[in-house]
Amino acid sequence: MAKRIPILISICISILLIIISCKKEYVTGSVPPAPFNPFDTIHYPYNLVNALPIDSNSFVGIHSYIFATKCANPGCHDGHFDPDFRTVQSAYSTLVYQHVTKNNQAGSFVYRVKPCDVSNSWLHERITTVDPVLGRMPLYDSMLSTRQITRISNWIQAGAPDIFGQVATATNTIPQTFGIVAYAQSGSNWIRVDTIRGGNMFYPMLVANNTNLKIWFGVYDDVQTPYQLTNLFVRFSNNPVDFSTSTAYPLNVQTTPTYLSNIFGSNKPYFLSYTLNTASLPNNQPVYMQISAQDANHSAPTLIPAPGNQPYIISYFSLIVAP
Question: For residue 139, is it within any domain?
Fold first, then answer.
C-alpha cells in the first residue's frame, strides 16, 4: 500500500499540470481579427443631417413642432390612450379616419381627422372649441397659436397626407354590435331581464313564460346610423348556427335613439328593438337570436352573431323561457 501512494501522487500532479496548461492556453490564446466591414469607413457629416428641412405644414412638421412638444407629455397623449402622439407613426395611425371615443353633446363627429373636411374633424374641434365643459386642447398647456392651428387645418384640408405624402382612404366596416338589453312587462312596469343569466353574462338570459318581452339590439356602423341601415330583421332558432328555416321578423326602427341602462361601462344609444310574447317560444331550452343589418357599402346583410363567431357570443344572443 505504501508503494502505491507515490504513484497516486504522481498521477494527480500530472492531471493538475494538464488542467493548468489548458487553462493557460485558453486565456492567452489569440482571437482572430474580425473581417473588414467597408461601411465602417463611411462617415456622414452631422451638418448634412441638420440641413434637411421639415415642412411645417406636413404631418412630420406638425408632429415635430406641435404634437411632440405640446401633447405627448406624461399624463396626456403619451401612449396610455389614443390618440398616441409619442411617434409620428403612432400619431398618424390614431388620428386619420379613426373613430372618436369622446364627442360633443350632439354626437356630430365620427372621425378624429376626416381628410379634406376640417369642420368634421374632431381634432380641429378640440383645439378650437370654446366649450368650457369639453375643454380646449391642450388642456395642461398654453393654447395653440393661430399659426399652429392654421397649419393643422391646412394639412387636413390637403387630404391629411401621411409622412410620404399619400392621402389616406377610409376603410368601411360592416355593422357591429355593442350588446342587447331586454325588458319584461310586469303589470304597468318593465323590468330588465337581460342581466339574469345564471351568474355569467354570456349565459342565456332567463325569462318567464307568457310574458311580453322587448329586446333592444345595439348596432352601430361607421358610415350610417342604425335607422339608415336596411334588411333589419331578427330570427329565432333552436339551432345556434342554423336560421335558414326561421321567420325573419322586422325590427322596430327609431330615428331618435333610446338611452337605456349602462352596458359595458357606457351609456349606449339603442335604435332597434323587437317585442314578442314568450308564450310563442319553447320552454326550458335555449332559443338563439340572430339579427341582420346592411349598410350602403356592402352588397349583403351582416349577420349578428354570425355562425363563425365564438360560442360565448352566440350564447349571449340567446334566452331560455322558464315555465
Answer: yes
In the chain, how many domains are there?
2
205 domain residue, yes or no: yes
d(C-alpha 221, C-alpha 179), whole Å: 14
| C-alpha cell belonging to residue 180 | 342587447
Q: In this structure, how many other beta carbons lie within 10 angstroms of the beta carbon of residue 208?
A: 15
**pTM for the whole thing?**
0.55
The answer on 151 and 189 residing in a single domain is: no
* Predicted confidence (pLDDT) per residue in 86-128, tens digit: 888 888 988 888 888 888 877 788 889 999 999 999 899 988 8
CB 120 within 8 A of CB 97: no
Residue span of the structural domain in which 256 resides? 176-322
At 32, list the grid cell.
482572430
Write the DSSP assignment of 228-283 as a string of letters. Answer: G-EEEEEEEESSTT--TTS--EEPEEEEEEEE-S-BTTB--EEEEEEEEEGGGS-B
| Residue 262 within any structural domain of the chain | yes
210 with 302, same domain?
A: yes
Both 308 and 192 in one domain: the answer is: yes
Q: Is residue 20 part of a domain?
A: no
At residue 83, φ and ψ (nearest 5 deg) are: -70, 150
pLDDT digits (tens, 9 = 90+) for 137-168: 877 677 888 999 999 999 999 999 988 888 88
Count CB atoms within 10 A of the CB of residue 49.
8
CB 248, CB 231: distance < 8 Å: no
Residues 317 and 181 in one domain: yes
